[in-house]
Design goal:
The chain is of the alpha+beta class. The protein has 3 domains: 3-122; 152-299, Serine Threonine Protein Phosphatase 5, Tetratricopeptide repeat; 322-435, Immunoglobulin-like (Sandwich). Helix content is 58%, strand content 11%. The protein has helices at 3-62, 67-94, 99-122, 125-146, 154-169, 174-186, 190-203, 208-221, 228-240, 245-257, 261-274, 282-299, 383-388, and strands at residues 322-329, 340-347, 356-361, 367-372, 393-400, 412-419, 429-432, 434-435. It has a 5-stranded antiparallel beta sheet, with no helix packed on it. Strands 4-1-7 form a 3-stranded mixed beta sheet, with no helix packed on it. The longest helix is centred in the N-terminal third of the chain and has 60 residues, at 3-62. The chain is elongated. Keywords: Cytochrome c-type biogenesis, Membrane, Repeat, TPR repeat, Transmembrane, Transmembrane helix. The chain crosses the membrane at residues 6-24, 100-119.
């Protein structure tokens, strides 16, 4: 039993005693006083009876009363003494425990027992136990990893059992569904993980992270193959969270399987940019990028060079709309020359996923940067679509402090917009001169 349960029991007992004690005290003090008074009254009655007997005996000896009168008067005094004694016993019985007191004690016991049952079954005792179980599991898993051992997945299974029992009582708890999904993924129980992720989206359909993780669970369940549902979930996740690395990885796989190698490079490169240098998935993504570049070269697809220089390929010129923008850095910008600069076009309003993005080094600026159809990040967000729908766009150039495509406080940025694609200015120019606060 959790320590919180014992604390609850002690508090409940204290509350009951707080209520009962004044009642017991109120009853015990008068009872004690009445008992003392009764003893005194009984002693007085006995003394009075004895005095009457002495007087009556003297009267008989002196001849003032006959023998028959003596007997009759003695009987009368004895009867009065007995009547007084009976009255005292009746008064004493009124001060003893009554059925009402028994009802009070029974109610108190039921109150404590019922409150404890309610607390343990509908209160937070189970939640506290689950939290402790999760904390202990995480600590033990960490110890295993530090010792070079694979964590014992039986701990995950025990947590899964506890979570499912609790969710049967509280099916609207999204936190428990998420913990269940993650634990199921640890045990390679992809079917259970898919069910849990779907339950979360039924409660909250706006989480890009959950969409991406559901897509990943479906991908693993489908023997590492993309299907339309997985591709759609990854695309929806990127609409909400454009830099979600899980969704970017899946979108890149989808593009690669469709032989859209330039798109695959774009997705995977963004995923690499969002991962730390020591991330375990970084090398796999970089290997995928290299294979996609090779396949793109074979099929004649243009792919942006790693340093942001114009694409090098013998393929025909990329078809579709092209934007050229001059990018320069203001004198007040204090940044190392080896930092990365992201130049991209995005919709002026709505989803902020880049329609086309180019990555260059700060040392190469000022320069004229070309954005074209091959640099789109998703098949549902391209320059062609923006041009066909006459969607106003914004052009952004941002110096990244850590090489990540995700903006952070301390980055320097410049932007222009809104730009009407039906009437594009002849000279598009961005000056990087604003420091981001958040």
């Amino acid at each position: 039993m959790a320590a919180q349960s014992w604390i609850f029991i002690l508090l409940a007992i204290m509350v009951v005693l707080f209520v009962i004690w004044p009642v017991l005290r109120r009853r015990s003090l008068p009872a004690f006083r009445a008992h003392v008074a009764e003893d005194e009254r009984l002693q007085t009655n006995v003394e009075v009876f004895k005095e009457h007997m002495r007087e009556l005996g003297a009267s008989l000896a002196e001849g003032r009363v006959t023998q028959d009168e003596y007997a009759l008067l003695k009987l009368e005094h004895e009867r009065r003494l007995l009547d007084d004694d009976a009255g005292l016993e009746k008064s004493s019985s009124n001060n003893k425990t009554t059925p009402a007191v028994l009802v009070l004690f029974t109610t108190a016991i039921l109150l404590v027992g019922g409150a404890f049952y309610f607390y343990t079954h509908t209160g937070s005792a189970i939640d506290v136990d689950i939290q402790k179980m999760q904390q202990a599991k995480n600590q033990q898993d960490m110890n295993d990893l530090m010792q070079g051992r694979e964590p014992d997945r039986e701990r995950s299974r025990e947590l899964i059992t506890a979570l499912e029992q609790r969710l049967a009582q509280r099916p609207d708890n999204t936190q428990y569904w998420f913990m269940l999904a993650r634990s199921a993924m640890e045990t390679n129980d992809f079917s259970r993980a898919v069910t849990a992720y779907r339950s979360i989206l039924e409660l909250d359909a706006s989480s890009g992270m959950v969409m991406a993780e559901l897509a990943q669970a479906l991908f693993l369940q489908n023997n590492n193959r993309i299907n339309p549902e997985i591709a759609a979930l990854a695309g929806s996740a990127l609409t909400i969270e454009p830099e979600n690395t899980t969704a970017l990885g899946l979108a890149g796989i989808d593009a690669y399987e469709r032989a859209a190698y330039s798109e695959a490079v774009g997705f995977w490169q963004r995923a690499v940019d969002g991962l730390g240098p020591q991330s375990p998935g970084r090398k796999a993504l970089e290997g995928g990028i290299e294979r996609a570049r090779q396949e793109a070269a074979k099929s004649g697809q243009a792919v942006a060079a790693r340093d942001g220089a114009p694409a090098t390929t013998d393929a025909p010129v990329v078809t579709g709309p092209t934007l050229e923008v001059s990018v320069e850095v203001a004198d007040k910008v204090d940044a190392a020359k080896d930092l990365t600069v992201f130049v991209y076009a995005r919709a002026w309003q709505g989803a902020k996923i880049p329609l086309a993005i180019q990555r260059v080094s700060l040392a190469s600026l000022p320069a004229k940067i070309t954005l074209n159809e091959s640099m789109s990040m998703a098949p549902t967000a391209t320059l062609s679509q923006a041009f066909s729908q006459s969607t106003p766009i914004e052009l952004v150039a941002r110096i990244s402090q850590d090489g990540s495509a995700i903006s952070r406080a301390g980055d320097w940025q410049g932007s222009i917009g809104p730009i009407d694609l039906a009437d594009i200015p002849g000279d598009l120019r961005i000056v990087i001169d604003q420091k981001l606060d958040e």
